[in-house]
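Thought: the user wants the 3D structure for the chain below. I'll pass the sequence to the structure tool as-is, report back what it returns, then summarize two notable features.
Action: structure_tool
Action Input:
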Amino acid sequence: MAAERPNVFISYRRDDAAANAGRLFDWLSDQFGDAHVFLDTSRIAIGADFERVLGERLAAADVVLVVIGPRWLDIADANGRRLDQPDDYVRMEVATALRSGTRLIPVLVGGARMPAAERLPDALRALATRNATELRDAGFEQDFDQLVNAILDRPRGYLKTELDRVQRLLRAIRVSTLLVPTVALLVVIAIWVGALEAFTLDTRAASYLMWAGEQLAPPGAQPGVLLVAVDGDSERRLRRDFGPVAAWRSDHARLLRRAAAAGATAVVFDLVFERATAADAELAAAMRAARARGTRVVVGVRDLDAGRPRIAAALRDAADWGSVCINRRLGYSYMAPLAVVAAGPDFAAVQPARTPALALAAVRGDALQAVDIERRRLVLANDPAPAAAPRFSLLHRISGATGDCGALADGDLIAAQLIRFTDAGYWHEPQRRVSYADALDPQRVPDSALAGRIVLVGATLGRRDRVDVVSGFDRHALYGVELHANAIANLLSGREMVTPTLDSDAWTALLAAAAGALFGYLAAAWNPWLRRALLLALAGGYLGVAAVFAGHGLLLNVLYHVSGFVIAFTLLRRLRSGAFDHRTRRRS
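Observation:
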């Protein structure tokens, strides 16, 4: 019975079976330990005497494995067949082992057959009498177990074979102890800096994942919002173009009085009242009267003056306000900036906040105070249930010009809500949308249609204020007021989309990297087509799980997690296949 940790020398021809030899070296190193396995490219120091080291390692070897591929016998150079040349290293290694009586095992790879004695040089003919073993790509692990039994000169036993596999796994885990945390750390850093956002890949993935989530968990009825559309029909029936004029402000006052009397929860204007008109006093009085009856009144703000909302002076203190800014990421993915974070120098978990979004002011009458970064929640003044405070999706740094929306500035850090959209026709259904002119007429829109609802007033005129939205494989246009309607409906229903916190992403990245490394170890002996199929199946399964989470409001960073899995998988396979080590020696 041979020693349990014999010294193994691997002889191979580079142009014939370098990859097979490298793979064999890694598996044998896992089995017996690095110090007990010799492969020239990994065990000869730079500047060392090559022939002397080979001689010493051959002399110390208990077993010599001769890796024979399809071209091992016939590879030639300008001087003829390499095996016939006395200075050929492969010839010298095999001849030395045969002369010394060292145990020699031919290992056939790549479908090679054992060479016949008459085709071998005289010094190597004894090789033909050695019993060979085969390492097949399709059955590598089973063939390797047989080779280990042959090296150890022991009968094949199930228990011992399984212990060998556990031993190899433990050595692979040792390799992974540095690999996995390093990959996970790189993934977390990439998430933090938004590495994939530069190529819009992150946003595209989020866009389609949100769409898939909506297919798996479609939103139910959301009766809490009534959209009152200032449309072309309203302009014709009221006989005036829409704009900041006194007549429209008087109509807004009429609508406010109607809605408050009917018991509306809030009247929200996705409109800006920056210019003063002769009807502002009337509108301000209607706003105050509505608030006195328990109906919140919110007006839109596009710009700030020294931190104060730019609103006509007569209206400034008569209503609450919210920013009408909506940030577009790409296609399906739009963000409502719920708050601007005023980060302190220590960047504590809870930071003061300002500039509430129109949707937030519409749903919650309490003043915005702070942002709880760890819990992804907003902190409101006098909130009786802080655990149920509105959630935000992610922190996002505004980069570049903000167009005509000065309430946000370049460099602002915002707590943003990723808007979850309904179907294209959702806000056109009669129970959710009425014409502005109809809303002024109790005969056309009864009080019951206003009672208990947030009445959202906004313009839907021609091509103005329209944006293109990509929903899955469909593209359609929405008005800005419809974006706000979706944002309000998300907050009302608790269907806010939330991304993981950084610590959650760190654990997920660690699990993804560990799974990639484990799969890289387990799949090393599998058929390449099976390995690819299982990789695709794993990726598809993870995306399916991520879509389910998205349907319930959690948007995972799928591209980063999949990248961590693939990187760990690839690195472990490369480390174990010797792809980084077996390139230095010039043997042909």
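Final Answer: Structure generated. The chain has three domains: 8-156, 176-202+499-575, 220-493. Residues 8-156 form a domain with the Rossmann fold fold (CATH 3.40.50.10140).
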